[in-house]
Amino acid sequence: MAKDNKKMVEQITSMEEDFTQWYTDVVKKAELMDYSSIKGCMIFRPYGYAIWENIQKGLDARFKELGHENVYMPMFIPESLLTKEKDHVEGFAPECAWVTVGGENKLTERLAVRPTSETLFCEHFRDVIHSYRDLPKLYNQWCSVVRWEKTTRPFLRTSEFLWQEGHTMHETEDEARAETLQMLKVYEEFYLNALAIPAVTGRKTEKEKFAGAEETYTIEPMMHNGVALQGGTSHFFGDGFARAFDITYTARDNQVRYPFQTSWGVSTRMIGAIIMCHGDDNGLILPPAIAPIQVALIPIAQHKEGVLDRAAALRDQLKAAGLRVKLDDGDQSTGWKFSQYEMKGVPVRLELGPKDIENNSCVLVSRVTREKKFVSLDNVIEEVEAMLAQVHSELVERARRNLSEKMTTATTHEEFLDAAENKPGFIKAMWCGDSACEEQLKDETGGVKSRCIPFVEDHLSDVCVCCGKKAKHMVVWGRQY
Amino acid sequence: MAKDNKKMVEQITSMEEDFTQWYTDVVKKAELMDYSSIKGCMIFRPYGYAIWENIQKGLDARFKELGHENVYMPMFIPESLLTKEKDHVEGFAPECAWVTVGGENKLTERLAVRPTSETLFCEHFRDVIHSYRDLPKLYNQWCSVVRWEKTTRPFLRTSEFLWQEGHTMHETEDEARAETLQMLKVYEEFYLNALAIPAVTGRKTEKEKFAGAEETYTIEPMMHNGVALQGGTSHFFGDGFARAFDITYTARDNQVRYPFQTSWGVSTRMIGAIIMCHGDDNGLILPPAIAPIQVALIPIAQHKEGVLDRAAALRDQLKAAGLRVKLDDGDQSTGWKFSQYEMKGVPVRLELGPKDIENNSCVLVSRVTREKKFVSLDNVIEEVEAMLAQVHSELVERARRNLSEKMTTATTHEEFLDAAENKPGFIKAMWCGDSACEEQLKDETGGVKSRCIPFVEDHLSDVCVCCGKKAKHMVVWGRQY
């Protein structure tokens, strides 16, 4: 068994040796994705897509609970529509895929495959918003978007990716600001409770905010190697787009006014975050809330009479309790199966053999700690649920420890450069508010950028870590995917 | 109240007067969709999209129950990939939207926005199928596809539409043929039990089958006006694509073989079928299984003390029982609300006023028959569920009656032409098997085409209704959307 186990594991590069290669190995070997012949576009295989479906289900319920409704806009944006908001087009036009031929005719105006849909939503909002009675509009869309990326990496940066984009319109600035923050909180809660990922949240600097937004809020989980992944953003637009698209409504006081707007989104990058935050040298580790298989039921000595029957009954019992179980009665060796489900990150393994059946018990093994627990079949559901809950908290705990261990404080320029060079992770440091300093720090460090101004700022010193002028904010900095 | 009702209804053209305009009025006034500035692309508004979500939920559960897994393929197809299967490219290339520029560069090879994904699935199948152990592959994809249509109509024919496409690979021809038929049966069962639409099913003639398929099976519901809507198709490909894409596997007998393939799909056209099959001059009528709102709870004299509180409690009670309820406590008149939810096709209206509360009762009104029923609040859930079930069976019954009343039998050429001209609906007639006869009948009638060769054929006569030669099949004919 040990031998089999080893053989399987040898197929993945270790994290220590080469984190990037480890990542690539995991996404392939765990059968999450496959490459396609279209540059930068990936194939979501069943196991990878099932994770996305569970993410969708969890988020969609949260959005609807807060009154949001799903809609679907066209996937094409005429060039003239995309260019209506100046900052927005500058941000997105350079990375659009353009349709120039429809059927057998050259189009009179080329169409961008949507990189994001603010402009389409605005055009629709102009048609359906007339009075304060039509507000708020709380819309969300699940779709794929295209951004023509030069370098791509599965789940993290691909030319096409899947996401949700919320777009809302409100009577007042306050209401829109509250929505922007509320949706960031939804993301934060989901990252923590569903993905087992604690993260830094806060406001983006001017330089890093979304094209066309007044303010962008972000959630920034830290990967196991200390690198940040921008995990989701929520934007407050003020009435900028409303003015550009001439969206007005008759207010309660009978005045014609511009409504206030937000948008917010998370994408299949989340799957990348899960892999890089929780995975280990044996492969993926999936948080129970989104794991397509929560329990891998492995029969031991399955050729012996009664084993498979008892295993099937147990599977049905666990399924009936709402657990996602897979009974693997295939003809591969037990060791191969153990490695296989470890690789696939199944949170709990359940072993059931003739001896166990005799003793009315079974063995549970945690994917995180690999701890074995002998439990009675009389309360197997409670035991499995308890171990799943334990896996979740252990994942949160580990990620929290990683986040705090790899968080350095820098009060001087020297300290900052030293941390950037020698300490993988985030850096807390004061900043004057000038984009030039962000630019300089990025250049000096070969890529460390401001992640965000967190909601609660420590006062580390009075001066900017870069220029020494008066500090305005404490910023969390880091390299990113 | 009657006056209000009338005012609302005046906004829709009657079906008798102009069925096409009635359809357009309904999709707009019931707020199912809106037009976009992109030719042929529509916007799914919340109410329309919610119907699609319920359809997805129902179908997805059925697919998974049968062992299918969801995946996601890229939205782009390189031209060289699309052209690998000769018949397939001839069918689709003329109606593709082509991406020719990515980012700021002209692409070396243009990319079609997927019109359907057989080619992408084949490319992936070639990578993941090696042994009989890898079969069957039972995949499904939910996505949007693009076919550059010249004339478009909301839900029925649009340049972009939403759909599911199942793609499966099998060891044997028999297994693939069984899958093809099984999935048609799933569609048939779903049309009947979820959409309340009985339909004709059968095999497409050579002329009408899918580009690249050996056989195409179809479900053909009849709209209220007697016109057919191709409601879903299921294709058996044999090993044609497998050969074109060089997909092989090592069989149980150690021989290298080509696997056998199917694909099957239904789209947002289904929403068009629901509208045109069930709607009436007061608007939409939605089958309870997919209605976003199953019960519209309208408080009467809602300003009177206790009415809104009792209504809210009733709503919560119905919701807890799993019903989709909307309590409308807005400030519009009761009559306006009645018309509004009739227009939106909500199957059951529940009225609750001070008198009702005094009597511990409420009023249920069926959207189909408009029959009022006074029921006790003690068993309101059972009563609502019973009325929903009744609405479903009445819809099925009405649609079945329409289908049988508008089914004509023609045994001579003259009878066929007469039916085509004077009797809206389907025509049963014998056919020799020659495409030339199909072509001739279509030309002579201005559009009557073979819908399908039904699974059970009546023997109407010995000769083809067109050429008089020996008949091979009984075909159901009809005009189509």
Q: Helices, strands, pairings?
A:
Two copies of one chain form a homodimer.
Chain A (H helix, E strand, L loop, with lengths): L1 H8 L9 H11 L3 E3 L6 E3 L1 H20 L3 E2 L5 E3 H4 L3 H7 L4 E6 L2 E9 L4 H11 L8 E10 L13 E11 L2 H21 L6 E4 L11 E6 L11 E7 L1 H6 L3 E2 L5 E2 L2 E8 L1 H10 L16 E5 L7 H14 L4 E3 L6 H10 L4 E5 L1 H5 L2 E6 L5 E5 L3 H26 L1 E3 L3 H10 L3 E6 L3 H11 L3 E6 L18 E6 L3
Parallel strand pairs in A: 3-7, 15-16, 15-17, 20-21
Antiparallel strand pairs in A: 1-2, 4-6, 5-6, 7-8, 8-14, 9-10, 9-22, 10-11, 11-14, 12-13, 17-18, 18-19, 21-23, 22-23
Helix pairs in contact in A: 1-11, 3-7
Spatial shape of chain A: globular
What is the rounded Rg of chain A?
A: 25 Å
The CATH superfamily of the largest domain in chain A is identified as Bira Bifunctional Protein, Domain 2
Count of discrete alpha- or pi-helical segments spanning 4 or more residues of chain A: 15
* Mean pLDDT rating of chain A: 95
- Give start-end ranges of low-pLDDT stretches of chain A: 1-7
CATH architecture classification of the largest domain in chain A: 2-Layer Sandwich
Question: Could you explain the architecture of this structure?
Answer:
Chain A is of the alpha+beta class and 481 residues long. The first copy, chain A, folds into 3 domains: 19-278, BirA Bifunctional Protein, domain 2, CATH 3.30.930; 288-391, Anticodon-binding domain (Rossmann fold, 3-Layer(aba) Sandwich), CATH 3.40.50; 407-478, Translation Initiation Factor IF3. Chain A contains 15 helices and 23 strands. Chain A has helices at residues 2-9, 19-29, 46-65, 79-82, 86-92, 118-128, 173-193, 240-245, 269-278, 307-320, 334-343, 354-358, 380-405, 413-422, 435-445; strands at 33-35, 42-44, 69-70, 76-78, 97-102, 105-113, 137-146, 160-170, 200-203, 215-220, 232-238, 249-250, 256-257, 260-267, 295-299, 325-327, 348-352, 361-366, 372-376, 407-409, 426-431, 449-454, 473-478. Chain A has an 11-stranded mixed sheet, with helices on both faces. In chain A, helix 10 (307-320) links the parallel strand 15 (295-299) and strand 16 (325-327). The longest helix of chain A has 26 residues, at 380-405. The two termini of chain A are 37 Å apart. At the A-B interface, strand 2, helix 3, strand 3, strand 4 and strand 5 of A face strand 2, helix 3, strand 3, strand 4 and strand 5 of B.
